[in-house]
Each structure stands twice: as structure tokens, then as C-alpha cells.
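Entry for the shared binder. Reason: the reviewer on the internal report wants the predicted structure included alongside the sequence.
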Amino acid sequence: MKKTLKKIIKYSSIFLTSTLVIVPVSLYTWYRVEYNQFISHSNINSNTYWNKDRTFLL
């Protein structure tokens, strides 16, 4: 009984610790990917209707 309780505590703590590490890291990674994608799409140099002199092209 005591051995089983130790195993339960051991694996529960491993699961909890891994969850506390994996979830924030994955959320941060997801945020950075979305943020970089947003920045790349909103960058004025990537838009095709501007030329190098910043004059409007028709």
C-alpha cells in the first residue's frame, strides 16, 4: 500500500510539473508565431501598392 501511494505521488508530481512547464511554453510559442505573422503582414514594405519612394502606384 505504501509503495503504491509513493508511485502515485511520484507520477502525479511528474505530470503536474511537466504540465506547468509545457503549457506556458507552448502558449508563448504560439503567441510569438502569431505576433511575427501579424508584424510581417502589417509591414508597409511588404505591401505591393507602395514603391520605394512611398508614392502610390496605380
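Summary line for the report: Helices lie at 2-42.
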